[in-house]
Please model this.
Amino acid sequence: MFGPLDYAQVAPPGFLLIEKAAVLTVGSSEYALRLLPLLCGFAALLAFARLAHHLFDDWAAPFAAGMFALGAPFVFFSSQVKQYSSDILASVVVLAAAAWMRRRPGNIRRSLTLGLVGAAAVLFSQPACFILAGIGASLALVYLLERPRPATGPLAVVGIMWGVAFSVAIVLGLRAMSPTDRLYMHWYWAGGFWPVPPRSVSDLRWPFEQLTYVFGAFGSGPRRTNGGLSYPWSPLFAVMTLVGYVAFWKQRRDIALFLAVPALLTLAASAVQLYPFTGRVMTFLEPGFVLAAAAGARYVLGIWPARLEALTPALLAVLAGSPIYAAVRALPPERVEHMRPVVAAVSTQRQPDDAVYVYYGAGQATLYYAPMFGLARNALTVGRCSMANPRAYLRDVDQFRGRPRVWILATHLIRNTGELQAITDYLDAIGRRADLMTVPATTGLSAQAAYLYLYDLSDPARLGAASAETFEVPNVKVDESLAQWGCYGTQAPVP
Model:
């Protein structure tokens, strides 16, 4: 709970504690592991709907709640054993508690409640520190601007409780990552740091592009797993978000600050390369972006000139149709790198003398599912990771020369290095492919599929056609950083 996890993974202590409790009480099935993220997803939806109805008294409330309820990232991360779902819940609950406290800013009971909510949030969400810092700074600024000023005591209570919680969270966060892990994370998320000082027009518009990706798709990876809402016309929603901040500022400056300042702090952290402002790691900001977009849509329709009234249906169609369209395209269940049916197939068809080779990217998943289907650990050979030297993979499988039945399990094919292709090309040259099973991903990306091959490597004539040292491997250029970090973290070979 309080030290580095294996494979350069990072998770807050509260999340780990409840996950461990679920395993100890219910078991280690997928359902047990997904219980906490699912409950966080339900709770976040209820809390968000309540917050939306507090902020809006018209159609903007169900519109915002609908965007949240249909949001593919919110659904997907509620089914994935990662802390992104608890990040979203922490963000929504702290926002809701801060808005509730602001109804009676001098009430000590409400301040104590807000302080406790924020202190608990950072135990279950590391980026909740940005929410606490942003809302805390906003509360201080609102206090300075208000006339007459409310009592200082309630605000001081929140500040002290959050200051202690924030400090503890930072210490735990630093202890949860080794220096090497931090270097690896910096490399992995390098595209999420704002280039400062900007040296081009692209650098200047970088923050707006990232906001656009929130409503569209992040980068070139799988659309839904990377955190984007996958809306068509995503730049329109980014503009609506910025307009929404202005609209809130005109009506409720405290809410405008609560929504905008955490995002600005996260952006500033990316500028100094402390935290990436991109992808799934900034999903905790998406509830605030959704609320701001709803406020922006309401404001624009409120000032829509009469001469453009004919265009109103088109604007409404885009605003309401985009979330529905994205939800229809991302109907669950989401399946990515689905290894369960692959391992099940091996367990039912494997003969006593069969060899089983596991491509390193499938190592962790295979070892999780193997005991469920009666596959012993010593029956599996988990391969190495060698992105800079693909010939090492051929040497790995050469140990099975002469075996009549060799199973190859694979998934998590990243970086377009062609590693699995090199392995199968070599095996096709020295043996005979007897079977192939492919479990496609619902994202439609071949890199996210799971594969199962069966080879006969017992024919002496075919075995003489090539060896690991003579077979021609693809000349794939691997840059220096990928050669250094590509086999670290989740790509590290399983012991």
User: Anything to note?
Assistant: Residues 4 and 176 are 4 Å apart (CA to CA). The two ends are 21 Å apart (CA to CA). The chain is about 55% helix and 5% strand.
